[in-house]
Design a protein that fits this description.
The chain is α+β, with helices and mostly antiparallel strands. The protein has helices spanning 77-80, 83-93, 130-139, 215-228, 251-268, 294-318, 335-338, and strands at 16-22, 29-35, 41-46, 53-54, 71-74, 98-99, 106-107, 112-114, 157-158, 161-162, 164-171, 177-184, 240-245, 280-285, 322-323, 331-332. 25% of the residues lie in helices and 20% in strands. Helix 2 (83-93) crosses helix 3 (130-139).
């Protein structure tokens, strides 16, 4: 196995990703849109005690709709779900969606999930909306994907550090490609007790340049984490992921793949799926390859979970420090600055 050309979810043929980032005065939020080719099948697995989602029931294998037009990941908590409206409108303008009548009479299928970043730049009600959704959709490309504090990861936080967007891919020996994109915003920490990143052992050779952390900085980090424990509030986190593959999977197969990929969360963040997280994984099958043998299916599920882990590590490593305390917001410290 090896990574694709971009080491990103866009290595899966037909997958496009776009970001809308808002980081001006009072703003630290954004939206990320993943758009697959027409006819893509989807599934989802939602865990944790604080989910915020839209259209996920449609992805249940028992339900009729079997195609996904875009996936929206957004900051803004409950307000940020409105970003999906802009994507729905943009898709409808193009005539893409589930056919419900005559020509042009379509209903775009746009599942969405949100993470909490309200107030991190000092202004509580600054959140993405339909404009950011449309912007991210129109910006989508099949090239390299920006990582770190962009899109839905702009104001993300993980274990007191700046979270962000990360992505990774693998091309299997069978020729199947799988890629993951993650917006990391967890109650749990990506840091191991010794200060290294929990998931760094899953990185591929040459994927990142890492050094042993300074023990004094590690001790200070964990002391700060202990002091912050009492400030945790319900529904103020959530890590979101989209996993895509060109392997041929039905809705049930996509749902199973999404469930396996939660293992990728658990290898890179601790704890996960808490009462304060709404961890959500979407899985997409573009059906570009033939059906898999049993062995190849397990290999795909393994590679997908590993790609999620790597994407989380890459998100944390790519993010830079942001300090909005002067505006009444927060300081989000980069792992590379604080510990590496």
């Amino acid at each position: 196995m090896h990574p694709g050309a971009h080491n990103a979810i866009t290595d899966v043929p037909g997958i496009r990703v776009g970001h809308a980032t808002r980081e001006g005065a009072g703003w630290l939020t954004g939206t990320t849109v993943v758009t697959p080719p027409a006819g893509t099948t989807g599934g989802v697995d939602v865990r944790g005690g604080g989910p915020g989602t839209r259209e996920t029931d449609l992805l249940d294998p028992r339900n009729l709709v079997d195609a996904v037009d875009s996936i929206v990941l957004s900051g803004g908590s409950v307000f940020g779900l409105s970003a999906a409206d802009g994507v729905v409108q943009a898709l409808a303008d193009e005539g893409r969606g589930w056919p419900v009548g005559g020509p042009g009479e379509v209903a775009p299928i746009v599942p969405a999930a949100i993470l909490f970043d309200l107030g991190r730049a000092g202004t509580w009600r600054h959140h993405p909306g339909p404009g950011e959704g449309r912007e991210a959709y129109l910006a989508a490309s099949d090239g390299p994907v920006d990582e770190g504090g962009v899109g839905a990861g702009t104001g993300a936080r993980a274990g007191g550090l700046h979270g962000g967007i990360g992505t990774a891919s693998l091309v299997l020996d069978s020729g199947v490609t799988v890629g993951a994109l993650v917006a990391v915003n967890a109650v749990g920490s990506p840091v191991a007790p010794d200060g290294r990143l929990l998931g760094e052992g899953h990185l591929l050779a040459g994927e990142a340049d890492l050094h042993a952390p300074d023990p004094r900085l590690v001790r200070r980090y964990w002391e700060d984490r202990a002091a912050q424990t009492g400030s945790v509030r319900a529904g103020t986190a959530t890590t979101l992921a989209v996993v895509a593959t060109d392997a041929s999977l039905d809705k049930a197969g996509c749902a199973t793949l999404a469930g396996v990929c939660h293992d990728g969360f658990a290898r890179a963040l601790s704890p996960v799926h808490t009462a304060f997280d709404g961890d959500t994984v979407f899985a997409l099958s573009t059906k570009g390859s033939a059906s898999l043998s049993a062995a190849d299916l397990v290999a795909l599920q393994t590679a997908a979970a590993d790609s999620v882990t790597r994407a989380i590590v890459r998100a944390v490593l790519a993010s830079e420090s942001v300090d909005r305390r002067a505006d009444g917001g927060e300081r989000l410290s980069a792992y590379r600055e604080l510990l590496a």
